[in-house]
Specification:
It contains six helices and five strands. Strands 1, 2, 3, 4 and 5 form a five-stranded parallel beta sheet that branches. It has a single domain, classed as Ribosomal Protein L15, Chain: K, domain 2, CATH 3.100.10. The protein is α/β, with parallel strands linked by helices.
Length: about 140
């Protein structure tokens, strides 16, 4: 009654594909160090960001400046586990940490009086993650 998988001409490796790891050495280092900061500080926010970065790149967050402008308050620290893009304008001074930000987005953030930093910089400055908001 039950046929084995091999009788259908399908190898078992096709059914149970192994999870592929990221090959970008910079991304691997960022994920590893975010997990380390999370363990040392005993907070889950940096582990959550690391988990999101380990997802498939097509599932990464792509946040435009218009969204940051709409939802972020002045002086807030925003973490984007993905990419910040320059579509829209921003007028509030905020700190934005992302894995990658376009050059135009960085310029617009700094012109508004804010800062654009890497994820590791913000994690080292604020290991407890207090006041950090994940967007995207």
């Amino acid at each position: 009654m039950f046929k084995s998988v091999r009788s259908f001409g399908v190898g078992t490796e096709a059914l149970f594909m192994a999870k592929t790891s990221k090959t970008n050495p910079h991304l691997q280092r960022v994920v590893r160090e975010l997990r380390e900061v999370s363990r040392e500080a005993g907070v889950a926010v940096w582990r959550d960001v690391a988990d999101r970065l380990e997802r498939s790149r097509k599932n990464w967050s792509e946040v435009n400046l218009s969204r940051l402008s709409r939802y972020a308050a002045k002086g807030e620290q925003i973490v984007v586990p993905g990419v910040v893009l320059a579509t829209g304008d921003i007028s509030t001074a905020i700190t934005v940490a992302a894995f990658r930000a376009s050059g135009a987005a960085r310029k617009k953030i700094e012109a508004a009086g804010g800062r654009s930093v890497s994820l590791l910089e913000l994690a080292i400055q604020n290991p407890k993650g207090s006041g950090v908001r994940i967007m995207g």
